[in-house]
Design a protein that fits this description.
Strand content: 15-25%
Shape: elongated
Number of helices: 10
Largest sheet: 7 strands, mixed
Radius of gyration: 20 Å
């Protein structure tokens, strides 16, 4: 009797080693092989994998993770641990860029007070600044953990607002943003939800969230923080 491996085994190998030999796919049952090949065809279109005669290479692990989640093949959290934090941050930056936003990644302030902002994204049309905390959650977390993350994020934002004149000397564009919106972007969450006025947004829904921010601000009663350094 033939010995088969599972779809999860093949995908985990790809995430773990960033590459996969085509012969590995042949060890799947025919029905599973068709499913994996379907994922790879779509992944090639999305630019998250590259295929040659000798290997299948993982190019964009976050995008592939989202694709697998769409197909509802296996629990994607099985593969999340193989995604590096930098890969997650880079993916978010690419999404922000595609949305037409200016952004600064890893802003660190050391002059008056020390604090760091994962991503500061600026919408010059809407005059909004999104102060983003990136959280590469590899599992479901409880409300107490979310509370701690949100409050620490707000502490950093309070410092940015308080010392905005100093921040503006390094990032002059913030003078053109009237409001700041705090956001926590996660690798994993089943939907957008709000904790103490701060939206917890899955990277999957980021484009929708930014495109409909005016609606979400009102319907979700999001925090809006005046930028005292705003210049018309």
């Amino acid at each position: 009797m033939a010995s088969y491996i599972t779809v999860g085994d093949v995908l985990e190998h790809l995430f773990r080693y960033k590459a996969l030999e085509p012969e590995f796919v042949k060890l799947l049952k025919p029905i599973d092989r068709n499913l994996v090949e379907e994922i790879f065809v779509e992944g090639l279109k999305r630019g998250c994998i590259a295929i040659s005669d000798s290997r299948i290479s993982l190019v964009n692990p976050v995008e592939l993770l989202l694709l697998i989640e769409e197909k509802m093949v296996v629990d994607v959290m099985r593969f999340a641990s193989y995604i590096e934090w930098k890969e997650f941050e880079d993916y978010i930056a690419a999404r922000l860029k595609s949305a037409g936003l200016d952004y600064v990644s890893g802003y660190t302030h050391k002059r008056i007070s020390q604090f760091q902002i994962d991503v500061l994204a600026l919408d010059m049309v809407k005059k909004m600044g999104y102060i983003i905390e990136c959280k590469h959650w590899r599992r479901r977390i409880g409300q107490s953990s979310v509370s701690k993350i949100v409050r620490e994020h707000m502490t950093r934002i309070d410092k940015l607002v308080k010392y905005c004149e100093w921040v503006a000397s390094e990032v002059p564009a913030i003078r053109k943003t009237k409001l700041f919106i705090p956001i926590v972007i996660t690798l994993y969450t089943s939907s957008t939800w709000v904790f103490e006025g701060v939206p917890i947004v899955s990277v999957r829904f980021l484009n929708d969230f930014l495109s409909n921010i005016d609606v979400y601000i009102d319907s979700l009663e999001l925090k809006r923080i005046d930028n005292r350094c705003y210049i018309k």
